[in-house]
Amino acid sequence: MSRGRNFFRAMVRAPPTGSRSAAAGSGRCPAQRRPGSAGSQLEAGPAMSRTDAGRAGSSRRGGCLRRPPTWEVSDSDAEGPAGAEEGARVPGSAEERRAAAKALRPEQALRRVAVRVDPAVLEDAGAGILLEALSTLGCEYQVETQRLARSLRWTRAKPDSCPRTVPSEVWDAGEQDFLLLLEPEEFLQGVNQLTQTCGPPCSVPWISPEGSASLHVAVIGLDAYLWSHQPSNIHQTRQPETAAVARTAVALSWPRVEEALVLLQLWAHLDVLLVASWQELSRHVCAFTKAFAQRPLKQYQESRAFSFCVAGRWAGGERVARDGTGLRGVWWRQIRQFNRVSPAVADAIVTAFPSPRLLQQAYRTCNTEQERTALLADLPVKTGDGARPRRVGPDLARRICLFLTTTSPELLLDLGS
């Protein structure tokens, strides 16, 4: 430790503009004179001595080698004002971004969702299957009276600490969804009411006019119920409770039910789920719970200018130096983004035209559109020994030509997809 301190003191006290032997003995890089800095160290004063000494120390620590500044070009780099703002927030919000990423995980979002089960649902013998499925999913459920009898209601709670890096709409807790469970008899009575009206119905059964939440309907065992109430099967099953229910079941068949389903979807934007058992209903409820938990995040991602572009850099990007080293690799990657382009084909195009600007200049020299689209078609592609000779081909040549020459943002490059 004492040797290190003595060496550091000697290095600080050593004159930065001394003789060659002093610079070589200390192991530092020779100091460079700046224009207008003539004169000795005594004339410059102690302040200049301390400044130059610090600069010399930093040069020694860097090994006299500076790493050339580079950029990382990748598909995930943000561009434009939004990217600049995002980049300005990144350095000082690393912990917030980690907290936001943790809070947005599917398992974390699922823990903030609660399923409110109406007590009337528990009267059915198969309700235990549904509650067991919710417990296995890891979602909280509570038994409490709902505005709609025999219904399930989904609610979302905000996290304890909302990261500032994520918009507030992602943590929106006001959204609610209902799933109304109907018996086959009750559903068929509503269907009969719908199909007897001419034109759009003034009111849809099971829906209250003041209800603003999103409603879904599920019917368990409708297929078996219709089959058992066919005229040929009535004597094999138990008699209906009332004559009205019997007439409704006999009068309505699957075509009438399908007609009612279309009317509900078009006029009331109401989805009806027809399931055969409580096991099938439980699978649907679990899938809907997962989708409900992840819905705000997906809506936020889709609302961005480029939903597929994630801000930041990634290790697979192509590094580009100030002298242009790496731009050829970026051009090669850009060609590879076209469908059905192998590395050998991309190598052939990049070898013939090392940059897109050179290819654009070659397109300008062509006299006709046909000549432009066929410019790259006959480029040879290197293949292995004994393989048939290949070329780029007219399809890829046309797509690359359109990509570099068209002015229409709505033009489809790949007509075969």
TrEMBL record:
Region (Disordered): 1-94
Subcellular location: Nucleus
Residue ranges occupied by any ERCC4 domain in the UniProt entry: 114-364
GO biological processes: double-strand break repair; mitotic intra-S DNA damage checkpoint signaling; replication fork processing; resolution of meiotic recombination intermediates
InterPro entries (alphabetical): EME1/EME2_C, ERCC4_domain, Mms4/EME1/EME2
MF term (GO), any: DNA binding
Alphabetically ordered keywords of this record: DNA damage, DNA recombination, DNA repair, Endonuclease, Hydrolase, Nuclease, Nucleus
Cross-referenced Pfam families: EME1-MUS81_C
One GO cellular component, as annotated: Holliday junction resolvase complex
Keyword set includes Magnesium: no
Quaternary structure note: Part of the heterodimeric MUS81-EME2 complex; the complex forms specifically during the DNA replication phase of the cell cycle.
Entry similarity comment: Belongs to the EME1/MMS4 family.
PANTHER family cross-referenced by the UniProt entry: CROSSOVER JUNCTION ENDONUCLEASE EME2-RELATED (PTHR21077:SF6), EME1 PROTEIN (PTHR21077)
Protein name, per record: Structure-specific endonuclease subunit EME2
Biological source species: Panthera pardus
Gene name per UniProt: EME2
